[in-house]
Protein 1
Amino acid sequence: MQNQIKILNKINSFNKTISVASDKSLSIRAVLLASQAIGISSISNILESEDVMSTIKSIKKLGIECKKIGNKYKILGYGLNGFDIKKKTTIHAGNSGTFARLILGLLVKTKKIVKLTGDKSLSKRDFSRITEPLKEFGVNIKSKKKSLPIEILGSEFLKPINYLENKGSAQCKSAVMLAALNTPGVTKIKAVSSRDHTEKMFKHLKIPIKIRSRKKFDLIEIQGLYQFDAFDYIIPGDISSSAFFIALTILSHNSRIRIKNVNINKTRIGVVTILKKMNCKIRFKNKKIYKGEEIADIIVENSKNIKGINCPAYLNSSAIDEFLIIFLIAAKAKGISSFKNLGELNKKESPRLNIAVNFLKMLDIKVERKNNDIKIYGNPYLKISKKLHIKNYLKDHRVFMMSCIAALSFIEKGEVIIEDKDSINTSFPSFLNILKQLGAIIK
Ligand code: S3P
């Protein structure tokens, strides 16, 4: 089957209301915590993408019952470490770094070996950032390199740790938080601020957690071995998926969009903060709080006077999945934009900092790079007037989606061929359909 698309024209102006894919981080966390609760949890509006399906398939393989009834996933948990693993078991994380890292935190007490594998992209990613703290808890972990596949065997003699998370990684912080659940005593985490969905869910489930926010770090303490009850959860829309449509609207003449019911947790909306500083028109409406998470409609209008930004590095973690799309806006801005300290971008599904620099150069945008800092020389008259063929060797979903937005925003003449359409199934299976609803012509 053909797995490439062709775009020949810019999108026309649009004025539409859409809903995007449900939040991936929340979907994975809700499933994992439901697997540790006592009783039947009911999770509605789950993101039905490959990353979340890898999560569901894996917890089923670990002995947890999970059924879809109507729009709800019903998950029957038997409490902490309630997995039923009778012999060595292999689970596949596919492309999902979040699932792979978080599940390791829940396997700290298993009595049989669990082997964790991933696809080509995930198998290139660093897992020592998770396995090192888990070993300190007393868990046995075997891997040939610092990457997947990994074999993990739990311990009956876990001890709490003091952990410093200094990369701004929510996956590392959350894996340690989940390990703390099964560990007697108090686990102490000092973490650079990053998405705090796990903290919010712990609070909602009444798991004993203390959080003190300091200038540069959050101090988190978790008292282990608290058994919590099953829960209901409705997953809102994903700001990371919304970001592609926010950017398309900003870059499309005379356009406006309303994206309904999106999670706008403060630790996730760096993209909005950055784009507003660049003069883009974005606002929130219908704000409400749901189980500690803030949710709103996002309204965006096309922007005529986008300006460059000197982006403060403290915003990096809250925009970490959105930089590809932020760079596209910077490419069309008046003036120079600079971004610093973006090493973590090269640790994603593909080395996104390297890929972004090459991509912008392909659009004839001047980019200067020094280690993990980049400067983008914006061109308000940016146009694509040649044939481009965009390959995506690690099948990175966000590289595919960013390439579509670039083509639909900048093509003047020529054509853009983009490979690996199926990569969107990782996080946003309806991406191309929504583009078509907005009037995009995609072959
Ligand atoms: C995620 C955390 C981030 C992000 C990823 C989802 C999460 O990764 O890039 O897409 O749900 O915790 P890092 O923790 O590696 O920064």
Protein 2
Amino acid sequence: GSTIGVLGGGQLGRMLALAGRAMGYRFATLDPTPDSPLGQIADEQIVAPYHDAEAARKLAERSDVITYEFENVDAGVAAMLMSESYVPQGSELLYTTQHRLREKRAIEAAGVQVAPYREIRSVEDLQDGVAAFGTPCVLKTATGGYDGKGQWVIRSVDEIAEAYETLARAKTELVLEQFIRFEKELSVIAARSPRGEVQAFPVSENIHVDNILHLSIVPARISVEVKEQAERVAARIAESLGAIGLLAVEMFLTADGELFVNELAPRPHNSGHYTMDACRTSQFEQHVRAVCNLPLGPVELLTPVVMANILGEHVAPLLEWMEDEAGLPEEIAAKVHLYGKHEAKAKRKMGHVNLLTDDVEKAIRWVEQSPVWKA
Ligand code: ATP
Ligand code: MG
Ligand code: MG
């Protein structure tokens, strides 16, 4: 069968391969870590830094199609690969979504609103920006941030100098955003195929703890109008960007029903892991379909679901709980996914559990009292 080459060997790549394997594809991966979550199960692993052009060329030689599982792949390497192999997602989408300012401009160009923002090039810019937006407001590095790293919530003008100095060390542009007093955080994962077909997965309601996703709740507890609007927004951005494959769209919903897009990710997304057990097609299968130029699959939700992340500190209690599934209501089925990471460091994403339920409130209550997530 054909071989899919994946830049990056993390859990997103691993779950992509688990889905693609079932469809008969072989997988090769390039990742700096030997025995990465994808490396463990791939047909071939190339161990080298992401920006190593020679290693990337080697991946291209072994692959019929190339995709990526994280967005900080060197866009230059991606562009080079386009002349060596088939890279249906191109390098433009990476280039845009790697940089918060370019990303925000692209979202606005699609006719969708983002939180008011300013480019910050000096501490004077930051003083002006904080004066304009008021406090709190959020200073972010334009590139490289994740799980809330590379950002600073400025709560008082006294923090301006320190916030600027700290984030400026990252040697990237900075962006200041107005603080959105959101009622909920939502995300929609859209998929677009090379033939221009677009599908949006059901809206997920996301709850973060310490800037790391804790729960995804689907169906989201929002009105039908907001649901439809959120799905339209994601599809419109995917179309406007000419995205191929998955595009995750994170949004804020305010009390008066307004949506602001926070950020994009051109890849499978943690808030889409619920689709693995709860949708007719998973996000991973959908991405394989899109990059292999197959028809997209149906995305309907089969059951209400709550996805709960397993971080390093949750692994030991989870393994113990799995022996008898103590206290799990009969109406809830718990589907455990673990990524094969060796070191269960605190806050590190190690796995997730999809709780298939008749009632999301029941599953949320169960998580909140469960010994697994108490740690
Ligand atoms: P991810 O791990 O999702 O890639 P990230 O580090 O790229 O995260 P963001 O998603 O931009 O960071 O922000 C992290 C969280 O901080 C958001 O999910 C939200 O809870 C909060 N946040 C970010 N920007 C704002 C804002 N402008 N107003 C209010 N809250 C915000
Ligand atoms: Mg991000
Ligand atoms: Mg985010």
